[in-house]
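Quick note —
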Amino acid sequence: MSNFSFKNKKFPIKAIPTVSLAILISFLVSTFSIFFLKDNKDFLDLNSFSVEDIDYEFQTILEESRFDEIEVIAERSDEICEYFAQSGSFRTFNAAQSQYKELEKIGYVPVIENVTSQNGYNYIVVVGPFENRSQTNNARENLRRLNMDSLEKRTCKKIQNES
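Predicted structure written out below.
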């Protein structure tokens, strides 16, 4: 095998014929595109095309219909609500204690509550209280990232008006 380099002049491709061949090919392609691929001006006139008018039903429905006002139901001002995220329910206190320790490691302040249920789950682990539902959903999302299922719990207390 021969050693290709510019110094020993054994390089197989010569510069002048290669450049002239490239110029010739680009000239032929340009000439071909100019003469054979002419723009026809008839295609530029949009009035020459006949288009059927389409009657959409949704437009008439929107024009004829009335929009009903939606009542926004705000939280009652005579209630104070606290939101919690229940991170688990367990049959034994030791299992609930294990969940409690995991939640403490990630910075939450959990509480173990003793409950009675028909399916035998006697202990639930709850995180909170949170001021609003948005904070509760953020906590639930953090728990989901750690592969912990959770439920939203809300407790509301009525405020007694003294007036």
